[in-house]
């Protein structure tokens, strides 16, 4: 993907506040993002909005990552592919937003996956369009720095095991992953971004 392509996506991305506002509007209309407007996905969207609002209030950064963010001099744009119904997005993007809020050198933008499949298909996870997917670009050159997602590695490995367990239903797998997030309390994502920032900066 050339540099001009990235610029197109940067320009069409929305802020975290705009994203939250759009999710709120979807919830108020019993809808979700994307073409699949099933009752199941609209219910996930309601749950995700509550989850994001809670995490926006309770998420904190540790001192080490505060220090790395302060020392980071590389101007970056972080593009995050997401959808309102995605449980992993609801768990992770409030923390990603907190990182950007605490850095003068990170500009954060959100894009809906299904409206940006060309970009999504350049950042597949094991061949799948898994979200959220964060794409880090150099703000001055639009060169790709790196990517992250769709979930912390430990959760990803847990998901792989659960997905290969035939007796588990989809809803049971989702519940298991959400329980993992509740137990982890952002420790994994914080450690992963600490390592990433040291590399990206």
Describe the structure.
This protein has 201 residues and is of the alpha+beta class. The chain has one domain (3-150): 3-Layer(aba) Sandwich (Glutaredoxin). 55% of the residues lie in helices and 12% in strands. The chain has a 4-stranded mixed sheet, with helices on both faces. Helix 5 links the parallel strand 1 (76-82) and strand 2. The radius of gyration is 16 Å and the shape is globular. The mean pLDDT is 95.
Write a brief structural summary.
Helices cover 55% and strands 12% of the residues.
Whole-number total of structural domains: 1
Top CATH class: Alpha Beta
- Helix % is 55-70%
Rg from Cα: 16 Å
Secondary-structure content class: alpha+beta
CATH fold-level assignment? Glutaredoxin
End-to-end Cα distance: 22 Å
Assign an overall shape. Answer: globular
Classify the beta-strand content into a percent band. Answer: 5-15%
Features of this protein?
201 residues; globular; 4 strands; alpha+beta; Glutaredoxin
Q: What secondary-structure arrangement, pairings included, does this model have?
A:
Blueprint: H1 3-12, H2 16-28, H3 39-58, H4 63-71, E1 76-82, H5 87-101, E2 106-112, H6 117-120, E3 133-138, E4 144-148, H7 153-163, H8 170-184, H9 187-200
Parallel strand pairs: 1-2
Antiparallel strand pairs: 1-3, 3-4
Helix pairs in contact: 2-3, 3-5, 4-9, 7-8
């Amino acid at each position: 993907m050339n540099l001009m392509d990235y610029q197109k996506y940067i320009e069409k991305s929305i802020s975290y506040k705009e994203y939250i506002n759009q999710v709120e509007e979807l919830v108020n209309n019993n809808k979700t993002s994307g073409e699949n407007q099933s009752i199941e996905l609209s219910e996930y969207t309601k749950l995700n909005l509550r989850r994001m609002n809670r995490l926006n209030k309770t998420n904190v950064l540790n001192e080490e990552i505060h220090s790395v963010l302060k020392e980071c001099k590389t101007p970056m744009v972080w593009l995050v592919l997401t959808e309102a119904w995605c449980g992993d997005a609801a768990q992770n993007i409030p923390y990603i937003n907190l990182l950007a809020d605490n850095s003068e050198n990170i500009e954060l933008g959100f894009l809906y996956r299904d409206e940006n499949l060309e970009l999504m298909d350049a950042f597949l996870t094991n061949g799948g369009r898994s979200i959220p997917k964060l794409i880090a670009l150099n703000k001055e050159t639009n060169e790709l720095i790196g990517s992250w997602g769709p979930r912390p590695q430990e959760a990803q490995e847990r998901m792989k095991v659960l997905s290969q367990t035939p007796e588990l239903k989809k809803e049971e797998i989702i519940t298991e992953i959400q329980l993992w997030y509740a137990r982890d309390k952002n420790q994994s994502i914080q450690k992963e971004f600490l390592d990433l920032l040291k590399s990206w900066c």
